[in-house]
């Protein structure tokens, strides 16, 4: 029976939490953004340097989140910290946009990635665009169904998919390094005029690819022994991801070279096909698809917890404040968030450029669309870290981020700069591809405007006291 007074139980151990982190981070970015990042660099050193820098920023952010999550170990993550630091209206605006824009726009690319790789295994339609869309829709619906089946079903599904994800990456790396090596160029065939500027653009997608580690804060109220296990889970999960990302990039470079990687559409399959043949490549494509499902599952799993938290305090959304005791999941929140995800997947998956004459890369465009929203509130959390350190001194902090204010300062500056670059680059992409002529893009703009305005109205309404 649903009851608004029921609370989440602490059922997640370190392994479960690490699987959620790894499952969310890996699956969307590394298989798709690496070619774009390679195209924005002149040689392998710029490429690898970008991944190392992104990992360093992620660790700085994780150390800050570990302090916040152990000091305020309640369901809702960023919502809790922003409410504590900036007040309920600001936190409500964040949760509203997270539900309708940020989380759907971050989950959508993973669904489209799933569709791209499954299309290479078995096409469902004559055109790749429609086939990928069908697969992406199926993925969102199926994962939503698993999440409403109960905590145990969701937890074990995440663990299995995350394990498959790591297995797939290790198989790709193994095939790349154990197979024959041909002479390939590690520099771009044409020099980029402004390599540093291009590198900064690449960092936007690198940070998107590392995104997801902060989601552990959304489920801090469900982790056993949070004072110890939150930090351990974050560091183990992010450390594993950094190592895996670097290995995969070196594997891609070894087989495809810099130019081949920059021009690749599905690099994981191309590497395996070149080294081991088409049949093995199909198997790897299937493994990559399953790993993308792990990312979708993790995003839906954690995002529903924020919707549940905001339902406690936001007028008109108390219906989301419903926790199913038997299943130990917020069923209504899980179901509700599937609709905006499917809407954005449909719009970006079917979008055309240049007045409808050219298919766009829905994955990259949707990732760029989500980045300004995500980075705005990531920057807000970085600021609120300083606010709470100075203003809420009486709260016990089982863990404190080291080297204060250096580590949180690095995180803050990085988020501010990435926000600026993401906005300027997305605007440039819209102009260069003439997306204003696309009815799907106009629909997205209208949807975004409605959600921002309605969010402001709801955030400024008198709220129910916690």
Record field, number of beta strands:
4
Name the poorly predicted regions.
1-5
Average pLDDT reading: 81
Please write the string of helix (H) and strand (E) elements.
Answer: EHHHHHHHHHHHEHEEHHH
**What is the 3D form?**
globular
CATH superfamily descriptor: Amino acid/polyamine transporter I
Rounded to the nearest angstrom, the distance between the terminal CA atoms is 22 Å
CATH C-level label: Mainly Alpha
Q: Count the helices. How many?
A: 15
Topology-level CATH name:
Amino acid/polyamine transporter I
**Count of individual domains:** 1
- What's the helical proportion of residues? over 70%
Strand order of the largest sheet: 1-2
Radius of gyration: 21 Å
> In percent, how much strand structure appears in the residues?
under 5%
Provide the CATH architecture.
Up-down Bundle
Class by helix and strand content? mainly alpha
Short description:
The protein is an all-alpha fold.
Structure, explained:
The chain has 15 helices and four strands. The protein is mainly alpha-helical and 466 residues long. It has one domain: Amino acid/polyamine transporter I. The chain is globular. The two termini are 22 Å apart. 71% of the residues lie in helices and 2% in strands. The protein has helices at residues 14-25, 33-39, 44-71, 78-86, 88-121, 128-147, 151-178, 195-210, 226-262, 267-276, 278-311, 331-349, 362-391, 406-432, 439-459; strands at 2-3, 323-324, 352-353, 358-359. Strand 3 and strand 4 form a beta hairpin.
What keyword list fits this structure?
466 residues, mainly alpha, Amino acid/polyamine transporter I, two-stranded antiparallel ribbon, 15 helices
